Amino acid sequence: xxxxxxxxxxxxxxxxxxxxxxxxxxxxxxxxxxxxxxxxxxxxxxxxxxxxxxxxxxxxxxxxxxxxxxxxxxxxxxxxxxxxxxxxxxxxxxxxxxxxxxxxxxxxxxxxxxxxxxxxxxxxxxxxxxxxxxxxxxxxxxxxxxxxxxxxxxxxxxxxxxxxxxxxxxxxxxxxxxxxxxxxxxxxxxxxxxxxxxxxxxxxxxxxxxxxxxxxxxxxxxxxxxxxxxxxxxxxxxxxxxxxxxxxxxxxxxxxxxxxxxxxxxxxxxxxxxxxxxxxxxxxxxxxxxxxxxxxxxxxxxxxxxxxxxxxxxxxxxxxxxxxxxxxxxxxxxxxxxxxxxxxxxxxxxxxxxxxxxxxxxxxxxxxxxxxxxxxxxxxxxxxxxxxxxxxxxxxxxxxxxxxxxxxxxxxxxxxxxxxxxxxxxxxxxxxxxxxxxxxxxxxxxxxxxxxxxxxxxxxxxxxxxxxxxxxxxxxxxxxxxxxxxxxxxxxxxxxxxxxxxxxxxxxxxxxxxxxxxxxxxxxxxxx
Length: 528
Fold this sequence. Notes:
By secondary structure, the chain is of the alpha/beta class. Helices cover about 40% and strands about 20% of the residues. The chain folds into three domains: about 260 residues, Alpha-Beta Barrel (TIM Barrel); about 90 residues, no CATH class; about 60 residues, 2-Layer Sandwich (Double Stranded RNA Binding Domain), CATH 3.30.160.
């Protein structure tokens, strides 16, 4: 087959997802990342729809991209305007991009009901719009919107649409599953029929994910000879999203052997996925295939024992190929292999018969039985293991703390104040701090007290705080709670856990572990 081209529409279709709004600067940064990943086309937006997209097109000209071509998007001309007088067409030309993508209706119901015109008039609009743009733009793509639904209802008209686009000299015809409801076998069969028409231009595929079939449909389309795949990073898009390039790319590259990007570029896949999540202000889902934290994570002791011998026993690819890495989780399902694996990961040499391993495993199972969870709190586990080995330094001792929560008026927010006394070496520090809640006040107070002795704690911040009630029954508000805290500094993120019937005590345990881990980590770096 001809070389496959990747067309990314994160900056246009992706921004139509609920809760996503990229600034111009965000879009520039994402475009540069996509270019580094090896994407061939980057759809920057619809310049006729908002000033921000036009600003992006003006700004991106100041950057020298490695290989990606920037595409501007627009609909066909309005039925009552010739293309040279149409506002949308004028705006898309103002973007001055080397590629323009035009969307037109290919489902007869949309022509009659949405546009309110005849089927013949729609054909005329498509022909005139593409013909006009070809006089001004070197590469014009035609998105046949709702093509698969249109073909199922009126195949003759759907085929007329893509034939008129080719007769107007479109460089590509993109077959769109706009409602995302087509099944893989339908996509496959329809593309085979289209291929029999022997169109003089290459075909592309653009799928939405409303039936969770977008990736499968895109890959089957490639198997049928389509040479351009459109999608978004992380599957961002309207409703249920678009075809996810973070799954399509490695499947094409590693499973089908199609060289859509280089091996080196493929290793940037996870980095790119997380970068886009960060700019979208979304928490990356752990269970996302290929790029998620859990994609190559192993929990059962039997699994861990097997991957230590041969990773492919429970991994379909090597995680490093997509920039990910193997992880071993710690829980009550863990075996000695998990403990040994994690110890090795921490630079600690222990054997399967080492009494420390047996003791650590027993303690782990007992704590998890009580309600602790170390899957999201590996820093707490590391501290527990190093304490068992006598490698954990005592950085401070608690003398005592007191927290006061006060609400003075009905319409005022409660005020929390924490007073704490700690001992470092032979010195006692007594201080107080306010917070927007008792845990926040306690966090502020302990760090205020310790920063005098450990100034590096100023770089540390609490990123996430989760509370889960573990018991449900007669205990009511006296039930055990588990607190999971995620902390970060300028270099790393780490999780810690605490458990108690008292939410303040559980929070204290997790906070202390978080601080101890930060100090231990810094000591290790300074010793290297």
